[in-house]
Amino acid sequence: MIAHVLPTYNRADLSFEKGEGSWAVTRDGTRYLDLGAGIAVNVLGHANPDLVAALTEQAGKIWHVSNLYHIPQQEKLADLLVEATFAETVFFTNSGTEAAELAIKMVRKYWSDAGQPERTRILTFEGAFHGRSTGAIAAAGSEKMTAGFGPLMPGFQSLPWGDMDALRAAIGEDTAAVMLEPLQGEGGIRLLPDADLREIRALCDKTGALLVLDEVQCGMGRTGRLFAHEWAGIAPDVMMVAKGIGGGFPLGAVLATEQAARAMVVGSHGSTYGGNPLACAVGIRVMEIVADPAFLADVSRKAGLFRQKLESLVAAHPDVFEGVRGQGLMLGLKCKVAPGDLVAAGYGQHILTVPAADNTLRLLPPLNISDDEIAEAVARLDRAAGSLDG
Fold this sequence. Notes:
Layout: E1 16-20, E2 23-26, E3 31-34, H1 37-40, H2 49-59, H3 72-84, E4 89-93, H4 96-113, E5 121-125, H5 134-140, H6 143-146, E6 156-159, H7 164-170, E7 175-180, E8 183-184, E9 190-191, H8 194-207, E10 210-214, E11 238-241, E12 252-256, H9 277-290, H10 293-316, E13 321-327, E14 330-335, H11 339-348, E15 351-352, E16 354-356, E17 360-363, H12 371-386
Parallel strand pairs: 3-15, 5-6, 5-7, 7-10, 10-11
Antiparallel strand pairs: 1-2, 2-3, 4-12, 8-9, 11-12, 13-14, 14-17, 16-17
Helix pairs in contact: 2-9, 3-9, 10-12, 11-12
């Protein structure tokens, strides 16, 4: 008999009743150090008092009105995002998947409006993850996500990750856009070099293709800058954001230049819940905290500390680990064992981590994790790895 909750997840035998900062607590009071943060969502940890206050204050006023009316909280959050980024306009969604769908629609509508409706080909990269909708899985193209769901949306061409020769050969004046994650999450914490990202921007400029960045997982301060592409000194035309922007409350967005969004007019897209007062009230507070230069500088400082300790961990367990990868507090341990085995061993040490492709274990702690908690995390990872040493 099928479970009442559709069984599409391979869930761990754990259930958490409450959270406190970097800790998730089960009903019996067992505390787990959370290095997953809801898969890079809880950027300010569990039950953050600033976010709780923002949510409860708004909840006592008005929850939802729909986008038939002006929403002051939405307008304020859009102002904050525009002031802090390349963008000139923002559309709010409920998730990263919905942001990906709009980004794809925006690219196609851009070229249709420009009198080139046949210019639909979007270049993507192997290992990408842009969500679970039919458009998003077609963009990623992996057999794991697409099997059984055909026919897929046409118009995507997947290239080998990091293969700039393949990109140079594929991009042309028939290319609608290049879409990629500057730092892949699900794909195994794989960082695109700054030089490559700058060249991709130049190739898009040369051919007229739009550059679409997916910063759903690597954005919102995760790498020590508000958005990961800032390290390369470039800007996209369109960007997908979600996860951390709501600090745990469902919220996403598409940020775009006026030029890229010019064809998106009244009736061309919509959302019932997207950008409602509750979500945006939380998002405003997240932005006020995370976009602060001092906060981002501290993320970079803690990232350096964490990475240094992880390098020592790798050296201590050469049969378990190959190395450390990633940027900021979006780090990965490349494993010689199955990442799932290390996740399971971590449960025994009361620490939560997230597996990824390319035999990688993801470490995505809250951005406000303390130095002492970083030290404690590495000690627990050390004990978990010790249980798997050959």
